[in-house]
Amino acid sequence: MEQKSVRISEKTGKPVRKAGGKQPGAGRPPNSKQQITVVGLLEALKERSGGKEYTTMLVDDFLKARTENDKHAILKYHNMILNKVMNTLNKIEVNEGQDAVEAKKQAFAEALAKLTGIQETK
């Protein structure tokens, strides 16, 4: 029977595993606490703030930054709003006429014919 060679790490001096799968010591330990969830975090925040919703607190903080003319905080809020909100508001709608569709079909057929060496029949 042939013996398998085991590769040894130059850094650690320990055998290097080649395949995936279950690793010894991987994962969270038994009886560990659950991970923080977004829902749990928002519920805890609402409870600690006297029932105020997170979005209401964000708006209040933004307005406070504007009232106090805190340019750094205002810029951060604007960046957050632009990154998270604007992408859902900005939509590009493309309406192509039949001429454009036919031109694309023709260009695709020509490119496919070049790739495959098949001559187009009309």
Compact overview of the structure:
With 122 residues, this protein is mostly helical. The chain has a domain at 38-89.
How are the SSEs ordered, and which strands pair?
Blueprint: H1 38-48, H2 54-67, H3 71-89, H4 98-116
Q: Could you name the ranges where pLDDT drops below 50 across 5 or more consecutive residues?
A: none
What is the alpha-carbon Rg in Å? 30 Å
Let me know the average pLDDT.
Answer: 81
Q: What count of helical segments does DSSP give? A: 4
Structural class: mainly alpha
Portion in strands? under 5%
Globular, elongated, flat, extended or rod-shaped: what is the shape?
flat
Estimate the helix proportion, in percent. Answer: 40-55%
Terminal CA distance reads: 66 Å
Largest sheet: none
Number of DSSP strands? 0
The secondary-structure element order is HHHH
What does this structure look like?
The protein is mainly alpha-helical and 122 residues long. Helices cover 52% and strands 0% of the residues. It has helices at 38-48, 54-67, 71-89, 98-116. The radius of gyration is 30 Å and the shape is flat.
